[in-house]
Structures are given as structure tokens and as C-alpha cells.
Amino acid sequence: MISDKILVEQAQKGDTSALSELIGRHQHKVKQKIYKYTKNWDDAEDATQDAALNAFRFINNFNGKSSFYTWFFRIGINQASQQLKKFSIRPPRQDMDVDEEINEGLLHHSETPEEMAQLSELRENLEASMEEMFPEYAECLTMREQDNLTYDEIAEKIGVPVGTVRSRINRAKKHINNNFKELQA
Predict the structure, then answer these.
(1) pTM for the whole thing?
(2) Residue 72 above 50 pLDDT?
(3) Which residues 6+ apart lie within 8 Å of 55 measured at CB?
(4) 28, 51, 56, 87: which is deepest, by most CB within 10 A?
């Protein structure tokens, strides 16, 4: 599979099929993220289509400081923001689940669409890192960081010594740090 970076270079040289492939790779994911912002599938679809058109128009303005996904997502969020302002904010069509509430909080605490995209990307990388590690490491880290349990409470809950809990949490944190270092390299 050709990397996004190479496809961007080709697209900036006028290869529309390279840009089409880039957009195709990320369009569904961007639409899902925009839906969490708009709470309306039609608006998310419209914003994503507008973002795709703008990506075609302005691909030569892409400077590579962020990933293509982040740039494309930022365009989509800008389009969605303009739509919401234009049509006034619509109420959500359904209740939010816990993940949507977390994402909603992230959206309202971010200052720019680029920051929203970076937070989204960071969260996805963290989730991927948690899925890659040994389940017992992830379990201990989750109990400590999300459930706010003490080492003793975790040890009692899963039936292992406190030292084992400390070791698993330490290894989980090292795994996450190593994954993030690889991403930054």
C-alpha cells in the first residue's frame, strides 16, 4: 500500500487518482468524527463531501506539518461549523453514549478544529496501544487511571500481589510511551 505522504506528493503534482485514493482512505473515518460533532448524518455527509471538494481545490496548500487525515478532518470540521452556524444548531437526534460524551467534552474544550483532530488522533493512538499490550497490563492500567482504584484495591480485585499490579502498570505505561515515541519518529 502506498503511504499517504507519497500519495500527497503525487496529488500535488496533479495526479487526481492519488488524491481520490487519499480521500477514500479517510472519508468514512472523517464522516464518523464529524457526525459526533453535528449529531446529524446528513450534515456529516454534506460536510465530508464539501471537505473532499476543498481537499481537491487546495491540495497544493497542504504543507505536511500534520498528517493528511488531520488536515482533511480539520477541513471537514470547518465545513460542519459553517453549516451549523448557517442553519443554527440542531438538537441531537439521539442520546449520546459514554464515548460520545467524552468526545463531546473534547470538542468543547478544544480551541481549533486542528486541536480537535489532534486530540482525536491521540485518543485513537492510545486506544490502539492499549489493544496491543498484554490484556492484564491494560486491565490494571484501566483500573488505576479510569476507575481510580488504589494498587491495593486492584490487587484485591484481580487476586494478585500488589507488586505484580505495580509491575503491570509500569509495563503498560512503558508500552504506551514506546508506541508514542515510534509515532513521533
Answers:
(1) 0.49
(2) yes
(3) 19, 22, 23, 71, 72, 75
(4) 51
